[in-house]
Amino acid sequence: MYQLKRRQEITRWNIRQDLPGYLFLTPAIVVLVTFVVSPIIWAVFLSLHKVQLLGGIKYEFIGFRNYTRLIADERVWIALKNTAEYVAIVVPTQTILALVLAVILNSGVRGKNWWRILYFLPTVTSSAVLTLIFMWIYNINGLLNNVLAFLGLPTYNWLGDPAVALKGIMIMNIWSTAPFYMVIYLAALQDIPQTLYEAAELDGANSWQKFIYITIPILKPVTFFVVAMGIIGTFQLFDQSYIFSGGTGGPNNATLTIVLLIYQAVFRNLQMGYGAAIAFVLALVIISVTLMERQLFGGKRM
Amino acid sequence: MTKFNGGVWALKVLLYAILTLYAIITLIPFVWALCASFKPLSEIVSAEPSFLPKNFTFDNYKQIFVQEPLFLRWLFNSVIIAVSVTVLNLLFNSMAGYALARLRFRGRNFWFLLILAVLAVPAQITLIPTFLILKLFGWLNSYQGMIVPSMVNATFIFMMRQFFVNFPKELEEAAAIDGLTPFGIFWRIVLPLAKPALAAQAVFVFMGSWNNFLLPVVILFDPEMFTLPLGLNSFKGQYISYWNYIMAASMVFTLPALAIYAFFNRYFIQNVTFTGGKG
Questions:
Q1: Which residues of chain A have a CB within 8 Å of the CB of B99?
Q2: Residues 5-24 of B with CB under 8 A from A
Q3: Running DSSP on this structure, what letter comes out for residue A213?
Q4: What span, in angstroms and rounded, lies between the C-alpha atoms of A156 and A165?
Q5: Does this model's pTM top 0.90?
Q6: CATH 1.10.3720.10 for domain A73-296
Q7: Chain B residue at shortest CA distance from A219
Q8: Which residue among A125, A266, B42, B143 is least crowded, i.e. fewest CB within 10 A of its CB?
Q9: What ipTM was reported for this prediction?
Q10: CB atoms A279 and B124 under 8 Å
């Protein structure tokens, strides 16, 4: 009797517990399966096919030819080079700038919150708006050239000269994303126990030594996170290049990035399979660089 | 001793100087754009530009609303999409996060791991198939095409789960004893208490949708359906050197976001801190 009752309860328990759980999860499951999980599988499929979009979709299996074609495509290498150069300059610069600003804000200056709110402004502004504002500032007769001329420095055709066009986007993005990482650093700095610094002072350490031997090592996991986020974000540069160049990646491919190349392959040349193959190469590059970073940081967690 | 104090004083001055300089660097592009939006074109192209407008005018703002009939439509599209995406995200992410944190059901670990895995998928891999799926559904150039793929976010499901895991259980247990169903508990007890987490999520989801460029540029091509970032981009193509109009349009687009930021800035900071804290 007791046994039976208990078994009944277990079955009832399961129905009553399982159903609400799944009802709560259904919207999330449906959306993530439809728009993330199945697209990944479809993307693998696409990258192995030649896809023709004329009315309906036609697939022709071509094995790895999309990938081999990629290696011979000059524009892929240009995009890779531009993107790599962009990552290599933007990530270290914005990380150091973020750290320096956070340390200054955490050093007991007045109005910490006000500075922080003000600095954060570019981060909440749309990339489209920022790009338009900067394009105007970068104009031949624009504000930046006026300031440079006033200071007696050389002026540039920021929008039209292939040698400096990408630099213009770099400056803009360092300016707009550094404050985001500054806020992360600032939160981490506030968590460092003051006693550590007091102990170091007793041992006769000056400010610089405290910074190098206490702050930097304690912040290592945060720095790992900030650099990883930076790498992932910068490798996916698209909006700014698209608006800057009107979608062409010009002048003379100077602002062509990998994501812009994917966009062009798919929506200008209608080569879906080729675009998917480039997307996988990009994902592979991002994953490898992040893993390399992890090695560099001594295999920290995350 | 005096020398030591002098050094500290000099350092203080240096720090404030750096902070002020960086504040100026942060503000100049915004102020420059705002001022330009009130200048007539003649002043914009003049050889000796000044910061403040000499002939203050509202014409640029009038012009963009009158000459560009679609401008209001773009604003309307952006609002509809961003608000829907935000409301649905708040609801669905909290529901999923709550289920993963609190409810017991078979397969819970599997779904949790799947959501963690989804966090690591780069957007450009899913972009092309998403386009094809929306095409298949006939949802290109539509609100639902912009809303449905973005109405759930794995990052915020994870965040809500972490929030609910640390939530005191007693209230829910008391409510269950009083005979509330799991949905009743969720609606009446859990959601009202989750307001800080919801606010942080709301501002980020709203800004993300409001500023999104990649998805609309791919799936919206009828100018009637453009969101503001796309509209701005096409506007630029049309009024190529009318920077006064472009800046006025940029300001109209920026002000709602800035207003939200001004009111909710502590939630922004909280959220960034939370995201960073995980690392």
A1: 20-22, 24-25
A2: 12, 15-16, 18-19, 22-23
A3: I
A4: 9
A5: no
A6: yes
A7: B279
A8: B42
A9: 0.86
A10: yes
* CB B157, CB B112: distance < 8 Å: no
Could you read off the pLDDT of B1-10 as tens digits, one per residue?
Answer: 444 567 788 8
Instruction: For residues B16 and A255, give the distance between their C-alpha atoms in angstroms, rounded to a whole number.
Output: 36
Full DSSP string of B17-62:
HHHHHHHHHHHHHHHHHHHHTTS-HHHHHSSS--SS-SS--SHHHH
Contact A259 B124 (CB under 8 A): yes
Q: Letter for the amino acid at B67?
A: Q
Which chain A residue's Cα is nearest to B157? A28
Residue A189 to residue A226: CA distance in whole angstroms = 14
Q: How many CB pairs under 8 A join A and B?
A: 259
Residue type, B11: L
DSSP string of A245-283, one letter each residue: HTTS--STTTT--HHHHHHIIIIIS--HHHHHHHHHHHH
CA distances from A86 to A134, A182, A240, B94, B123 (A): 17, 20, 12, 37, 19
- Nearest residue of A to residue B105 by CA position? A18
Q: Which amino acid is at B34?
A: L
User: Do B37 and A122 contact (CB within 8 A), yes or no?
Assistant: no
Which of B126, B157, B181 is nearest residue A39 as measured by Cβ atoms? B126
Question: In chain A, what residues touch B125 (CB-CB under 8 Å)?
Answer: 39-40, 43, 276, 279-280, 283
- C-alpha B146/C-alpha B124 separation (Å) is 16
**pLDDT for the residue numbered A9:** 45
Q: Which two tokens stand for residue A134?
A: 């900067």
Instruction: Note whether A222 contacts B275, CB cutoff 8 Å.
Output: no
CB contact under 8 A, B229 and A128: yes
| Locus of tokens 């939006």 | B37
Say how many residues make up chain A. 302
Kindly tell me if the per-residue pLDDT of B132 is higher than 60: yes
pLDDT value, residue B279: 32
| Shortest distance, CA A172 to any CA of chain B (angstroms) | 10
Name the nearest CA neighbour of A179 among A121, A220, A130, A107: A121
**Chain A residues lying within 8 Å of B257, measured CB to CB:** 124-126
Contacts within 8 Å (CB) and 24+ apart, A15-20: A17/B103, A17/B104, A17/B105, A18/B105, A18/B106, A19/B105, A20/B99, A20/B103, A20/B105, A20/B181, A20/B182, A20/B183
Burial of B266 (0-12, 13-18, 19+ CB in 10 A): middle
What tokens appear for A255 in the block?
A: 């602002």
User: Could you tell me if B191 lies within 8 Å of chain A, comparing CB atoms?
Assistant: no
Q: Is B150 in contact with B85 (CB distance < 8 Å)?
A: yes
Which residues on adjacent β-strands are paired with residue A60? Answer: A50
Q: Which residues of B touch A38 (CB under 8 A)?
A: 129, 133
Test A263 with B217 for CB contact under 8 angstroms. Answer: yes
- Cis geometry, peptide bond prior to residue B40 (ω within 30 degrees of 0): no
pLDDT digits (tens, 9 = 90+) for A12-53: 457 777 888 999 999 999 999 999 999 999 999 999 999 887
